C-alpha cells in the first residue's frame, strides 16, 4: 500500500479551459488508473494541484508542498496524467526522475507516457520519454515568441489586440478594430482642448470633477469591464495621472503602440521600461479622435524623471484620511533637503478637508518609529501567547481523542475475537476508527506547523524591532496603509494577519 500523491496542473485559470486539460479531468484519469491497478488499490491518496501556473519552472505552491512532503517521507508514490503536468523544463524534470526520486525511493508514474519508475530501475529514462521532455522544454521557449509575433502581425493588419478598448473608443467584436465611442470621445476631445488652451492638468481635473463628468472607471463599470473594483471610492474623481495618460496616448491620433510599458510612479511617468526595439508603432490603424499636430504640440515637452531624489520609504503606503487617495510630495527647505507629503485632491476637486492633509517626512518617521517601539511589542507578545496557548490546547485535545480511539479499536478487536462482532462489522468499524485517527493526526501536523510559524514570526518580529530607526523594510513588514488626517491625527492599518495566525 502506498501514500500516493496525485499531482495536477493547468497553466490557465480561465473557465473556458479545455475539458481535456482541466484539473477535474486529470484527477479522474489518475483515480481510474489507481482503481484498475491492484498494487495501487487501497492506498492513501493525497491531492496536490496548481491552477494558473506555468510548467516552465518549479515555482508553484503545491509542487513545493509536494516536494516538502516527499522530504518528510509522507509520500512514496507520485502519479501525473503526463510529464508536461509535472514540468516542462527538461533538465529539472530529468533530474527529479533520474536522481532525486530514485534516491528517496519514490515511485513515479506518468500515465499517458506509459512510464513507471518501478519498471525502469537502475537505468535512466528511455529515449521516447527523454525526447518528449526536451520537446516540452523547447515548446515553452518558443511559445512566448510565437504569441508576440502573432500579436504584432494582427496589430499591423489593424486589429486591436488588447482585451478592452482605450477610453474614447469601443472594440468591434466582429472585426477586432477600434471604433469611436461618441459618448466618451467627447470627453477626450474636451480634455485635449482644455490642455491645448493652457489649462494645467490639475485645473482640467477640477473642471471635470465640478461638472461631475463620469470617470474612466465609471464607464468601465457601466460596460461590465470592471465587476469587482476593490479600490473604488464613493467619491471617485478625475486625477492628474488620468489626464496625463490620455494626453500622452498615441492611440488618439489613429496609431497603435504595442508592447509599451510605463513606470507606475507619476514622477517617472515618461520613462519607458521596454526598449525601443520592443515598442512598435503602427500608424493609421483606426479613425483618430485628435489631430496629429495638436497631439504633437502637447507632447513635445517631456517631463524629466527625478532620478536624483532620495528613496521614498513610504511609497504606496500614504493615503489621505478624507478622500483615501495616495499622497504626493514636494521637496522644500534649503537645497530642497526636506520632503513634505500632501493631498493633491484639493487641486483636482474642491475639498476643504484635504487642505489640512500635509506632513513632513521627518516628523512622520519619528511618529511611526515611536508607535512601533512603544506599542507593537506588547501587542505581539499578547497575540503570540494567546495563539500558542489556543493551538497547544487544541493539540492536546486531539491527542486525547486519538488515545480514546486507540482504546476503542482494541475493544472492537476483543469483541471480534469473542464473536460478538461479525468480520464485516469489525472491518467496517476498524476502518472508520483508522480514518478518524488519520484525520486527527493531520490536524495535529497542521497545528505543529502553525506553532512553528508563530515561533518564526516572533523571531522575525523582534529582528525588525531592533532597528535603530524607521526604514523601508520595517514599514513594509509592519504597515499596510497610513491614513493622514493632519499632523496629530494619523491612523495605521497594520499587517498583523501576515505573521499572527
Set down the secondary structure blueprint.
Blueprint: E1 3-10, H1 23-35, E2 44-51, H2 61-71, E3 77-80, H3 83-86, H4 90-103, E4 107-110, E5 115-116, H5 127-156, E6 169-171, E7 178-180, H6 182-196, H7 201-210, H8 216-222, H9 240-247, E8 256-258, E9 280-282, H10 292-298, E10 318-320, E11 328-332, E12 338-342, H11 345-348, E13 358-360, H12 361-417, H13 423-465, H14 472-478, E14 479-486, E15 489-494
Parallel strand pairs: 1-2, 1-3, 3-4, 10-14
Antiparallel strand pairs: 4-5, 6-7, 8-9, 11-12, 12-13, 14-15
Helix pairs in contact: 4-5, 7-9, 12-13
Structure in words:
The protein is an alpha/beta fold and 501 residues long. It folds into three domains: 3-146, Resolvase, N-terminal catalytic domain (Rossmann fold, 3-Layer(aba) Sandwich), CATH 3.40.50.1390; 169-298, Hect, E3 ligase catalytic domain fold (Alpha-Beta Complex), CATH 3.90.1750; 363-406 and 435-498. The chain is 46% helix and 14% strand. It has helices at residues 23-35, 61-71, 83-86, 90-103, 127-156, 182-196, 201-210, 216-222, 240-247, 292-298, 345-348, 361-417, 423-465, 472-478, and strands spanning 3-10, 44-51, 77-80, 107-110, 115-116, 169-171, 178-180, 256-258, 280-282, 318-320, 328-332, 338-342, 358-360, 479-486, 489-494. The chain is extended, with a radius of gyration of 31 Å. The relative contact order is 0.06.
Amino acid at each position: 500500500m502506498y501514500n500516493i500523491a496525485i499531482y495536477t496542473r493547468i497553466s490557465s485559470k480561465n473557465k473556458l479551459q479545455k475539458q481535456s486539460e482541466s484539473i477535474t479531468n486529470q484527477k479522474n484519469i489518475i483515480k481510474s488508473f489507481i482503481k484498475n491497478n491492484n498494487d495501487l488499490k487501497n492506498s492513501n491518496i493525497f491531492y496536490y494541484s496548481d491552477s494558473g501556473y506555468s510548467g516552465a519552472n518549479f515555482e508553484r505552491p503545491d509542487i513545493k508542498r509536494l516536494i516538502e512532503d516527499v522530504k518528510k517521507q509522507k509520500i512514496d508514490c507520485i502519479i501525473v496524467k503526463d510529464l508536461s503536468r509535472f514540468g516542462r523544463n527538461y533538465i529539472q524534470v530529468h533530474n527529479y526522475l533520474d536522481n532525486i526520486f530514485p534516491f528517496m525511493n519514490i515511485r513515479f508514474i506518468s500515465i499517458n507516457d506509459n512510464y513507471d519508475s518501478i519498471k525502469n530501475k537502475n537505468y535512466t529514462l528511455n529515449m521516447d520519454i527523454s525526447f518528449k521532455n526536451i520537446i516540452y522544454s523547447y515548446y515553452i521557449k518558443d511559445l512566448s515568441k510565437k504569441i508576440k509575433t502573432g500579436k504584432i502581425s494582427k496589430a499591423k493588419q489593424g486589429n486591436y489586440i488588447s482585451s478592452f478598448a482605450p477610453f474614447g473608443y469601443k472594440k468591434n467584436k466582429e472585426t477586432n478594430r477600434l471604433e469611436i465611442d461618441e459618448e466618451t470621445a467627447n470627453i477626450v476631445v474636451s480634455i485635449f482642448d482644455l490642455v491645448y488652451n493652457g489649462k494645467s492638468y490639475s485645473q482640467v481635473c477640477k473642471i471635470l470633477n465640478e461638472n461631475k463628468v463620469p470617470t474612466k472607471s465609471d464607464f468601465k463599470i457601466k460596460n461590465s469591464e470592471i465587476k469587482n473594483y476593490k479600490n473604488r471610492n464613493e467619491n471617485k474623481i478625475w486625477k492628474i495621472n488620468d489626464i496625463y495618460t490620455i494626453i500622452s496616448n498615441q492611440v488618439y491620433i489613429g496609431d497603435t503602440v504595442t508592447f509599451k510599458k510605463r513606470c507606475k510612479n507619476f514622477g517617472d511617468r515618461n520613462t519607458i521600461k521596454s526598449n525601443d526595439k520592443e515598442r512598435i508603432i503602427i500608424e493609421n490603424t483606426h479613425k483618430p479622435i485628435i489631430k496629429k499636430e495638436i497631439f504633437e504640440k502637447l507632447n513635445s515637452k517631456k517631463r524629466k524623471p527625478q532620478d536624483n531624489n532620495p528613496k521614498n520609504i513610504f511609497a504606496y503606503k500614504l493615503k489621505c484620511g478624507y478622500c483615501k487617495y495616495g499622497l504626493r510630495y514636494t521637496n522644500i527647505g534649503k537645497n530642497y533637503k526636506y520632503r513634505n507629503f500632501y493631498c493633491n485632491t484639493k487641486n483636482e476637486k474642491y475639498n476643504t478637508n484635504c487642505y489640512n492633509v500635509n506632513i513632513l517626512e521627518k516628523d512622520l518617521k519619528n511618529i511611526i518609529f515611536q508607535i512601533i517601539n512603544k506599542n507593537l511589542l506588547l501587542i505581539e507578545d499578547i497575540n503570540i501567547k494567546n495563539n500558542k496557548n489556543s493551538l497547544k490546547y487544541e493539540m492536546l485535545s486531539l491527542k486525547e481523542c486519538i488515545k480514546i480511539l486507540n482504546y476503542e479499536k482494541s475493544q472492537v478487536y476483543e469483541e471480534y475475537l469473542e464473536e460478538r462482532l461479525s468480520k464485516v462489522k469489525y472491518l467496517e468499524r476498524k476502518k472508520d476508527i483508522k480514518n478518524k485517527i488519520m484525520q486527527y493526526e493531520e490536524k495535529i501536523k497542521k497545528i505543529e506547523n502553525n506553532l512553528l510559524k508563530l515561533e518564526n514570526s516572533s523571531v522575525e518580529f523582534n529582528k525588525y524591532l531592533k532597528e535603530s530607526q524607521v526604514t523601508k523594510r520595517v514599514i513594509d513588514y509592519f504597515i499596510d496603509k497610513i491614513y493622514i488626517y493632519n499632523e496629530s491625527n494619523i491612523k495605521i492599518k497594520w499587517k498583523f494577519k501576515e505573521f499572527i495566525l
